[in-house]
């Protein structure tokens, strides 16, 4: 097999390397479950445990970080298990099928901390339920990520496969922004009437609505969509043939981690995802507080509607960006595409200072008062999230080929596990950073909209500064990334020749 053919100076994917549409869609549907798995908890943690139950923001941030200590053990261990598994259904599918329904049920349990309990008891429940949930998530997500890396051996077809994942990821992002408004509506429907706060108290989401919304997310998006990759995607692939994987030596945990730590291309991708996630999640956490307490005078319902509008904007821009980014990366290269979107994000970071401020003209639509100016934010920052989802995953698949070239083993599971743990850890650290940033600015949830001007100014500086700085740093890091399309094609040709001799 000669690998990608070239036409007009560009590599062209051979027909035999193309992944069938059914498998791309099935894999992409699993991306919806993966999104709600790692983002759903962090998205709901502060609104439910801080805004609704009244637990301190800093304590919630610490609680989000605790499960990452367990993940540091469970994720690489799961990577080793799935890399060494050889069943009649393949190395990945049985774990995906098992993990999806488990994490769906355990996601629901996270939000059932009794409101009458003390803050410490509620935190203990939150941490314990998270530990169980993220164990199930590891069983699902690590094999699922490895499955996506080994769908095809072609450098550019990998980008197209990841575009399907990005499409469903954007659906998840679009829907996740409406989880809290949905919880509020369901709560009103279940309770029977809107809960009117006493004078001086804030309007809070009925906890019954949170429970109902969690059941929908758990059963439909985590369990339901999560099992689809196991049904649609066959075990093994031309990128990681089952026979080659089975014939090779067993993957050893310490040896694999050492190899990952010594892989320069992998470490550079890790650096990019760390910068990207820290920036984005910090902004996501703080923008929600600004929308509620700064731009909506403490009205949770109004602020969360604005958050839903903002998330919808990110979803629409993301959908529109998927074909453009896939085309651009195929035409000019994955690294060049990342340069472009990070440059746009740096501009968007500066724009946040002017976007997230009150006083913009409002538009009345379906009885809702909407601030259209906030849609400038997704126009500038939205393409980056799609590009990262498509291109970093595609580049990770190239890194796995480089690893086999150097060490003679297929270790998608182990590399994916390290990557998954880092992503979850950075998300948790960023949300902890949100809590610490809120504390540093002097924010107190009990004050509602009556925060000082200095507090709101500090929050806006965090919101604007984080994406601007991290985008520029990501561009600097990417300059050293070594894997090009030509090098990927050469690596693949060497691997297939080696396998043929075996």
UniProtKB/TrEMBL annotation:
The answer to whether the entry has keyword Oxidoreductase is no
Its Gene Ontology cellular component terms are: plasma membrane
Q: What is the top-level taxon of the source organism?
A: Bacteria
Residues of the region (Disordered) are 1-20
| Annotated transmembrane regions | 25-45, 51-70, 95-113, 125-149, 178-200, 212-233, 266-291, 311-330, 337-355, 375-393, 414-441, 461-481
Give the UniProt keywords, A-Z: Membrane, Transmembrane, Transmembrane helix
Q: What GO MF annotations does this protein's record show?
A: symporter activity
Give the protein's recorded name. Major facilitator superfamily protein
| Organism (species) | Phycisphaera mikurensis (strain NBRC 102666 / KCTC 22515 / FYK2301M01)
């Amino acid at each position: 097999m000669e690998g990608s053919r070239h036409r007009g100076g560009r590599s062209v994917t051979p027909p035999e390397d193309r992944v069938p549409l059914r498998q791309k869609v099935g894999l992409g549907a699993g991306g919806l479950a993966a999104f709600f798995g790692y983002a759903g908890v962090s998205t709901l943690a502060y609104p439910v445990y801080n805004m609704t139950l009244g637990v301190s923001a800093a304590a919630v941030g610490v609680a989000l970080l605790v499960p990452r200590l367990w993940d540091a053990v469970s994720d690489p261990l799961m990577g080793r298990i799935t890399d060494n598994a050889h069943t009649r259904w393949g190395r990945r599918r049985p774990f995906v099928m098992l993990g999806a329904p488990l994490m769906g049920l355990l996601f629901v349990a996270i939000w059932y901390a009794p409101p009458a309990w003390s803050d410490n008891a509620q935190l203990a429940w939150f941490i314990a339920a998270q530990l169980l949930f993220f164990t199930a998530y590891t069983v699902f997500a690590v094999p699922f990520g490895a499955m996506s890396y080994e769908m095809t051996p072609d450098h550019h077809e990998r980008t197209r496969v990841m575009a399907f994942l990005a499409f469903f990821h954007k659906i998840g992002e679009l829907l996740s922004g409406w989880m809290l408004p949905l919880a509020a509506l369901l709560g009103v429907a279940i309770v029977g009437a809107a809960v009117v706060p006493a004078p001086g108290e804030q309007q809070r989401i009925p906890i019954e609505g949170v429970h109902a919304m969690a059941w929908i997310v758990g059963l439909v998006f985590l369990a339901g969509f999560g099992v689809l990759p196991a049904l649609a995607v066959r075990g093994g692939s031309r990128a990681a043939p089952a026979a080659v994987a089975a014939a090779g030596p067993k993957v050893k945990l310490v040896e694999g981690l050492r190899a990952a730590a010594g892989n320069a291309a992998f470490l550079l991708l890790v650096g990019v995802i760390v910068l990207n996630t820290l920036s984005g999640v910090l902004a996501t956490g703080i923008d929600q507080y600004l929308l509620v307490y700064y731009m909506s005078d403490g009205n949770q319902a109004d602020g969360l509607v604005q958050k839903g509008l903002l998330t919808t904007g990110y979803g629409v821009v993301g959908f529109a960006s998927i074909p453009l980014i896939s085309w651009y990366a195929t035409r000019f290269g994955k690294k060049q595409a990342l340069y472009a979107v990070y440059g746009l994000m740096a501009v968007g970071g500066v724009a946040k200072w002017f976007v997230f401020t009150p006083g913009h003209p409002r538009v009345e639509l379906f009885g809702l008062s909407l601030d259209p100016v906030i849609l400038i934010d997704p126009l500038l920052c939205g393409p980056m999230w799609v590009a990262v989802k498509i291109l970093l995953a595609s580049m990770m698949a190239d890194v796995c080929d480089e690893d086999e070239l150097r060490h003679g083993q297929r270790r998608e599971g182990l590399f994916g596990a390290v990557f998954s743990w880092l992503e979850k850890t950075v998300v948790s650290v960023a949300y902890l950073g949100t809590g610490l940033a809120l504390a540093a600015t002097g924010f107190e949830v009990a004050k509602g909209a009556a925060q000082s001007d200095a507090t709101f100014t500090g929050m806006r500086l965090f919101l604007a500064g984080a994406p601007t700085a991290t985008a520029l740093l990501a561009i600097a890091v990417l300059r050293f990334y070594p894997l090009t399309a030509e090098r990927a094609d050469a690596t693949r040709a060497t691997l297939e020749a080696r396998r043929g001799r075996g």
